[in-house]
Predict the 3D structure of the following.
Amino acid sequence: MDMKIRPRRLRNGELLRKMVRETRVDASSLIYPMFVKEGTGIVEEIPTMPGQFRYSIDTMGEKLAALQEAGVSGVMFFGIPDHKDEVGSGAYDENGIVQKALRKAKAEFPGMYLITDVCMCEYTSHGHCGVLCGHDVNNDETLKLLAKTALSHVQAGADMVAPSDMMDGRVAAIRSELDRNGYVNVPIMSYAVKYASAFYGPFRDAAGSAPAFGDRKSYQMDYHNSREGIKEALLDVEEGADIIMVKPSMSYLDMVTKIKDAVHVPVAAYSVSGEYAMIKAGAAMGYIDEEKIICETAASAFRAGCDIYLTYYAQEIAGYIKEGKIG
């Protein structure tokens, strides 16, 4: 056969395949989502997320040390308070669970980069992401509390804040509040392209944040839409977002690519609890090879265009990178 172009030439051997690899995965791009809760001596496995735990502040250090040893420097805290009320006051309490976790982690792990989820759903008695007016979330009143929450996180030691509430104007409100208090260099990673998804089920079990009534479709996005996601991303960049997140990851990689093309800031993808649970369940049944699926799904997110990957498998992925199984 007279063929000058043979694509298989560059697939001939592991060293060559790695040399010409288009997508690179690095541990510095990984962020581990971590659940912290009130109490002591708690290392509590999450039933719907085998291998993931809720930690109290006195026990979280072991996990943070393991992440750091693996090469994962980014952690995002999600708080589980003892007390919830109609206005989610635990979210912005200076002695709230996340604020206390930040101070402890910053003191004991100064080399780690601490990010916080800014939302009300874990703290409200009704489970919605803001202040209610009847059965509707009051967008503009919620902005005040989100800004207050973000400021309290930064004052406690957060290196970055990540609003996940999907209220209109939240990035501008937070940016204004941080700047007004002298935190002009603290970045915002916006959950700009966050879909109303069934993939969040295990997270709501983990954080106890399922809504008491209705759903979140009036503020999270319809999963049929893509142009709307681009609009949300562009608006948030205009308001001061430094990083744009797409959530979930696995079924929304088309949006990662579209957002990457539309904005000129880093793009993050969040591999959410349902994605983790599906892989765990399939592996437990012997239907899939867990290690290979973890590597493949991570590489697919980076191939789609993400610069940052939030995943419950961050520690494992970092290990696979060191072993040369992905990277």
Observations:
- The radius of gyration is 20 Å.
- The first strand starts at residue 30 and ends at 37.
- The chain has a mean pLDDT of 93.
